Amino acid sequence: MSAIANIVILTGAGVSAESGLATFRGPDGLWEGHRVEDVCTPEAFARDAGFVHRFYDMRRAALETVAPNAAHEALARLDREWPGELLIVTQNVDDLHERAGASRVLHMHGELRSAWCLDCDARSGWTGPLGDAPECPACGARALRPDIVWFGEIPYQMERIEAALARADLFVSIGTSGAVYPAAGFVRAARAYGAETLELNLEASQGSFAFDETRRGPASVLVPEWVA
Ligand code: BJW
């Protein structure tokens, strides 16, 4: 990677799969028979906030039981040692990149451990269950929602991501199906800006054809090999 100074890494659920967190579109990518597209929307929350809170309470509880895997650890090592610009743009709402020690991480779809008050707009760190009608620690209103970007909402920090893609010499996509936009479009943007593009994924994804190079296998093997 001698000619490469600036790297953007996009991660998806596949990077956390070997830690024990279910992916969205795999065989166990369902929750009590509901598709993610039916739970992760503002409409679903407006219809039945308790139902959506229970889904995220379960996800938050699962987070307590898992640990970063070799893929998170290799990326954290790269983050610590890479002298150029590097940004890990994760679609994941878990905190496994951070727990592995990475600091240049951007959560474009929000974070499980954060709650957002629709009344006072405050964000609060959240570890336990939110319950059916949680109270905002800042203002007391029962108006908290998970701090998660749902379908139809604009992902966080898009301008910063665009700027990083424009400067990238290398764009690497790891463990994501390429089914959800705008993240699925980053590979084309990076190529248009002149970056080399590499996909590391268990199997062919919807977006594989758009990459210069693709490697197939588990992230816990491919990522340490790539970083080495
Ligand atoms: C392994 C592995 C191992 C397994 N090792 N690999 C029609 C066309 C185009 C777009 C749209 C459309 N209709 C609607 C839209 C827009 C919509 C969209 O894309 N919908 C699609 C379903 C078509 N997008 C949105 O609404 C987004 N907002 C938006 O577009 O706003 C407009 C706008 C944008 C920008 C600027 C201005 C305006 C918001 C999307 C929000 C997504 N939210 C979710 C849920 C919340 C998070 C949560 O609860 O956790 O985010 S959906 C869900 O999918 C989650 C994920 O982050 C996201 C991506 O999933 P991911 O990570 O790719 O997981 P999987 O399961 O799909 O794939 C796992 C992959 O890993 C697989 O490939 C496996 O092979 C692999 N794998 N084990 C390596 N060990």
From TrEMBL:
Q: Where does NAD(+) bind?
A: 12-31, 91-94, 175-177, 201-203, 219
Cofactor comment text: Binds 1 zinc ion per subunit.
For activity, the cofactor(s) needed are: Zn(2+)
Q: Which domain of life is it from?
A: Bacteria
Q: Which reaction does it catalyse?
A: N(6)-acetyl-L-lysyl-[protein] + NAD(+) + H2O = 2''-O-acetyl-ADP-D-ribose + nicotinamide + L-lysyl-[protein]; N(6)-succinyl-L-lysyl-[protein] + NAD(+) + H2O = 2''-O-succinyl-ADP-D-ribose + nicotinamide + L-lysyl-[protein]
Mostly located where? cytoplasm
Quote the Gene3D superfamilies the UniProt record gives.
Answer: SIR2/SIRT2 'Small Domain, TPP-binding domain
EC class name: transferase
Q: Where does Zn(2+) bind?
A: C117, C120, C136, C139
| Domain Deacetylase sirtuin-type, first and last residues per copy | 1-228
Residues annotated for substrate binding in this entry: Y56, R59
Question: Pfam families of this UniProt entry?
Answer: SIR2 (PF02146)
Q: Does the keyword Transferase apply?
A: yes
Q: Per its database record, what is this protein's job?
A: NAD-dependent lysine deacetylase and desuccinylase that specifically removes acetyl and succinyl groups on target proteins. Modulates the activities of several proteins which are inactive in their acylated form.
User: By what name is this protein known?
Assistant: NAD-dependent protein deacylase
**Natural source organism:** Sphingomonas naphthae
